[in-house]
Amino acid sequence: MSATPASKTRVTALPGDGIGPEVFEATRRIFEAANAPIEWEMAEAGAAVFKKGIASGAPRETLDSIAKNRLALKGPLETPVGYGEKSANVTLRKHFELYANIRPVRELPGIRTPFTGRGIDMVIVRENVEDVYAGIEHMQTPDVAQCLKLMTRPGCERIIRAAFGLAIAEDRKKVTCATKANIMKLTEGMMKRVFEQVGPDYPDIARDHIIIDNCAHQLVIAPEQFDVIVTSNMNGDIISDLAAGLVGGLGIAPSANLGDHAAIFEAVHGSAPQIAGKGLANPTALLSAAIMMLRHIGAFETAATIEQALFITLAEGQNLTGDLSPRGHGVGTDKFVGQVIANLGRASNQPSRDYHPLSLTPWPNLTAHTEPKTRELLGVDVFIESDLSAAELGASLAQLAEGSALTLDSISNRGVQVWPSTGGQTFLVDHFDCRFMLKEPAQGNGPQGISDLVKAIGQEHSWMHVEKLQRFDGKDAFERPQGEA
Ligand code: NAD
Fold first, then answer.
1. pTM for this structure?
2. Atom number, ligand 1, closest to the C-alpha of residue 281
């Protein structure tokens, strides 16, 4: 963070698209009235940038500004159709490795929902850069699409430590890890295992694990039981929106994207093009994100002053924007902002939490690598495109493997074993996972044996990728298809 001479913290401001400039201006005015120790450095991202032909949606100057200030407040960004494939939001998130997405979910005074009065007050900590959202996708055949779900031990560890760190900073009592470890034992299972390993480092924080689908169910049945939830990228994407819906919706939800090198705070809602430029937008979400940013830099008192003014404005309900008011009774952004400013210095019935500085464990700047004590090569999965029946393909591959270093072990189709047949009624697509095991893995000639086999297969069939089957430290590093004994 770069401090200005007047000991203000300089923040890159990205007002963004649609209602973005209006909600940013509203936030800026409230910050000015509250004497918030922030100096804005204006920068561009989003639709206007795409239209200039910059395919990432974020120009060099913007990236440099964020890199220098290490802090940004961002309005919604559009990806205009026909101008670039990428989302500027994702560009920023990945460029700065903003791995921790923090989504507080708290009942706000004056905002009535079916859950009002339940005491909902939780934070969802979502891994923000890995998982299926790494965007590694390939068409395997014209009919079969594949997306790699990449989860890493360092990725799991740093998000889990961020969740515990956040629990300490916000004086929270429990971290719940939500995964699908029962089905995806290696990827989601890694998050659960790392949670169990890392958790004891935080003895004052209770911890438990929940299967993600039950987590969604429990969020609706008994949302007040949750304090901090940590989860992987796609799970977090879904449950954080679900949870926002419990307390009034995306339109009022703030979020922070934190990494070792920068932090970007934003409203969760989009650019609301239908009301853009009309002075009707509700700035609550961006203002709440900016309040999170104040706490991030340690300006706890100013954060509480502005938050209390916002709470009182919402609770008294006189000058609320149209989205929060009965039809026809809403006021414009300007009047709402004036009301928040008028309420600065007042305390609401809903106290602000007692926050402390959040410290993230910095990750070393090198290629993360763990060398196992033992590493054995056991075989190979060869993925083959074929319109043969499973029996025909099995007969052909078994014959091809004869005399090689491997034997055909099984063939599966979309994860279900189809050769040798288990008698199941699997619908087949032209994408077979053909598993070959080394006859004598200990001999150490596996790589050559695999290359020879793949070459032989390639002369009769079309293969699209191969996966080594390994065992690290005596543990199989692969899963078995459904139906395999
Ligand atoms: P949206 O959030 O813009 O709008 C959904 C509904 O909520 C609309 O009825 C809108 O009028 C209302 N709304 C949203 N924010 C409001 C506010 N602050 N005050 C009052 N009403 C508000 O979602 P969308 O229509 O799906 O998306 C519009 C554009 O925004 C798209 O181009 C999308 O890609 C982009 N988007 C950007 C982000 C981001 O930058 N983080 C997030 C979501 C959508």
1. 0.94
2. 19
